[in-house]
Amino acid sequence: MNRSSALGELAAVFLKLGATAFGGPAVHVALLENEVVRRRQWLTHAEFLDLLGVTNLIPGPNSTEMAIHIGLRRAGWRGLLVAGSCFVVPAFSITFAFAWFYVRYARLPQLQGVLYGVKPVVLAIVMGALWRLGRTALKTPLAIGVAAAALAASLSGLHELIVLLGAGVLAPVVRGIAVRPSRTPPAAAAVVLSPLLPLGLAAPTTAAASSAVGLLPLFLFFLKVGSVLYGSGYVLLAFLHGDLVERWGWLTESQLLDAIAVGQITPGPLFTTATFIGYMLAGPAGACLATTGMFLPAFAFVALSAPLIPRLRQSKMAGAFLDGVNAASLALMAAVTLRLLHGAFVDATTILLGVASLAALLFARINPIWLILAAAAVGLVLHP
User: Fold this and answer.
1) What pLDDT is stored for residue 20 in this prediction?
2) How far is CA 195 from the centre of its chain?
3) Is residue 2 situated within a structural domain?
4) I need a labelling partner for 95 at 20 to 30 A (CA). Which of 148, 172, 203, 308 fits?
């Protein structure tokens, strides 16, 4: 197959997936496996698992990075750009439309009713993800201890980046792995330790919160988040709450929950929450820049890490570092969930919606989108 045909096929596949992939990263990965391994046989199962493994070694949205990796394998650098962009663009477009509607009509009773019902379900989805991920990631006393320390640090107000980096450094130290540069490939270490890079980026100061949000600070904030975010997309909550709500006051807790809710009811990566927030803060230009900042690091990390997959797998330091980061990521998710409970569970109805949704997620394996749609209908009925 020539390169043009391969690019066209990639565009068609990932536009379709980007427009229909509801349900979060795990569902996205399952859909990708069905499309590129079972149906089209672009990759073997072993090759697919290798790519999935490396996406867990680098920051950013795992399912988007999988799409980018597949595009690179299928059609080189052009494939990388086509597959990643086509996977993100449908979600961006839908979220952009929701943001326009929200900014224009947020005070309409109908929209308020929808959000009234959806907010507790959003937190129930996060709690369900915490439970499932915790059962996988917190299997050792070390992982549990790191997670507990990270939760305490986060609740005490320590910055999310410090919590993640501290956990990443602590895990290999406690495990007794000597960090010796000669045994860790320099390029591999650079990718794994990439959270250190954005710390030097210019960031908004507390004083900036009192004035209009500038496009450059908005872009740099989301570039930073896209460069350091490990774990599930739900960890994004912790970063957004810590900076945009608590430190700079750009958003209220209610607006943040609204943004996450919109991310839940649209297909594609949850990270397009950045589109919604960017539009709320700085209009269409803000939406475009926030989205670009959020997803640009994923393209860079895939380009850097693709040739290094075998060497990354052999690094004990990288594995231990990521074990600590993953445990801390779950702790950050738990901390922000605790902070947002009072904004979503406001009465007996919302508590019932949250508890019922959590039970359905844990015991019935229901697709989260159906819970969100049902909760939106309940909200409309109770708050027409």
Assistant:
1) 82
2) 15
3) no
4) 203
Q: For residue 355, which phi and psi values (nearest 5 degrees)?
A: -65, -45
The reply to whether 95 falls in a domain is yes
The distance from CA 163 to its chain's CA centroid, rounded to whole angstroms, is: 17
Q: Mean of the pLDDT values across residues 195-210? A: 42
Q: What is the pLDDT of residue 310?
A: 63
Query: What residues have CB less than 8 Å from 372, skipping those under 6 apart?
Result: 118, 121, 122, 125, 261, 264, 265
Helix, strand or coil for residue 94? helix
Burial letters for 222-246: b for 16+ Cβ neighbours within 10 Å, e otherwise?
Answer: bbbbbbbbbbbbbbbbbbbbbbbbe
φ and ψ at residue 177, rounded to 5 degrees: -90, 120
Domain, as residue range, for 215: 91-382
Domain count, the chain: 1
Decide if 248 contacts 208 (C-beta within 8 A): yes
| pTM (two decimals) | 0.73
Nearest residue to 233 via CA among 104, 375, 130: 130
Report if residue 76 sits inside a domain.
Answer: no
Q: What is the pLDDT of residues 29-74, one digit of tens each?
A: 888 888 899 889 999 888 888 888 778 778 888 889 999 999 999 9
pLDDT for res 97: 92
Rounded Cα gap, residues 54 and 58, in angstroms? 7
